[in-house]
Specification:
By secondary structure, the protein is an alpha/beta fold. The protein contains eleven helices and nine strands. Strand 4 and strand 5 form a beta hairpin. The longest helix is centred in the N-terminal third of the chain and has 17 residues. Bound molecules: ligand BJW.
């Protein structure tokens, strides 16, 4: 893999790094992406499962789908892409992950600063009184569980279409993007808003935008540098270069 002089210079000089990640980074861990040939939305319509209306219409079906995905995620392990990102923290002053993923694999890989824009599949909350329940409390529930306090339906703590993103997390992620020196955009089609604004904001604020994806995306035309290939292969190679250029 060839690195340009410009890219190496940016790696040498940077202090603040943002990794903006999507489903593609977890593909090599065996977690399906949403779009594309093997994507979830190829088999299921998003509005049937990933909206509050769908949940109210058929809570058990939506709950069952999330229990199935939790099982996949539990059995999956972070891959070399997640692990490389976590190791970047040793070499730069400020490294964070802004992720659209709900699979918790960045945390399990050891990343310390994670902004989860679309929630986390391991948490749940009551739609009435907002009491939180972690996955262990509801692990064996085949049907939609009911809140112990108010008998409301319990839903996964993820952001469905038409719902607002967690406000403070989004504000903090925007701030990290604005102040970043390099923004890596990894494994996302960059089609879902407002999350997809984060890398654009980084670029407009002067950050060096680097895309890592198996194919080009909506964002590619804005990127200063595009690596085409699997993130589990490319990110460890970039990390190796960092090890040559910087000291711990
Ligand atoms: C690899 C790889 C490997 C594969 N290595 N790469 C402006 C314009 C148009 C529409 C809107 C807009 N603003 C808002 C909207 C509406 C909507 C939206 O964006 N729709 C678009 C789809 C058109 N947005 C919303 O509804 C958001 N809320 C909102 O805007 O609130 C305000 C509002 C309120 C009321 C009314 C109107 C507005 C909420 C969005 C929530 C998204 N939720 C989901 C589900 C989360 C829960 C769950 O997991 O079940 O989030 S949808 C799904 O898409 C999931 C993802 O986080 C998100 C992004 O997908 P991602 O990560 O990019 O995955 P893929 O599959 O698309 O791409 C994978 C990529 O990986 C590909 O590029 C591959 O090539 C690559 N890849 N293997 C490297 N090994």
């Amino acid at each position: 893999m060839q690195f340009t002089e410009e890219f190496l210079e940016k790696l040498t000089e940077a202090n603040r790094i943002v990794f903006f990640t999507g489903a593609g980074i977890s593909a090599e861990s065996g977690v399906s992406t949403f779009r594309g040939k093997e994507g979830i939305w190829n088999k299921i319509k998003p509005e049937e499962l990933a909206s509050f209306d769908a949940f109210l219409k058929n809570p058990n079906m939506v709950w069952e789908w999330y229990q199935y995905r939790r099982k996949i995620v539990n059995e999956a392990a972070p891959n070399p892409g997640h692990l490389a990102i976590a190791e970047f923290e040793k070499y730069f002053k400020d490294v964070c992950v802004v992720t659209q993923n709900v699979d918790n694999l960045h945390a399990r890989a050891g990343s310390s600063y994670i902004y989860e824009l679309h929630g986390n599949i391991e948490r749940n909350y009551c739609i009435n009184c907002k009491t939180f329940y972690n996955k262990d409390e509801l692990q064996f529930s085949e049907k939609t569980p009911i809140c112990k306090i108010c008998s409301g339906l319990i839903r996964p703590d993820v952001v469905w279409f038409g719902e607002l993103l967690p406000e403070q997390i989004f504000i903090d992620a925007e701030s990290k993007a604005i102040h970043s020196d390099i923004c890596f955009v990894v494994g996302t089609s960059a089609l879902v808003y407002p999350a997809a604004n984060i890398p654009i904001l980084a670029k407009r604020s002067g950050s060096y935008l680097v895309e890592v994806n198996i194919e080009s995306t909506e964002l590619s035309r804005f990127a200063d540098h595009s690596f085409i290939g699997k993130s589990g292969e490319i990110l460890p190679k970039i990390l190796n270069e960092v090890k040559n250029l910087r000291t711990v």
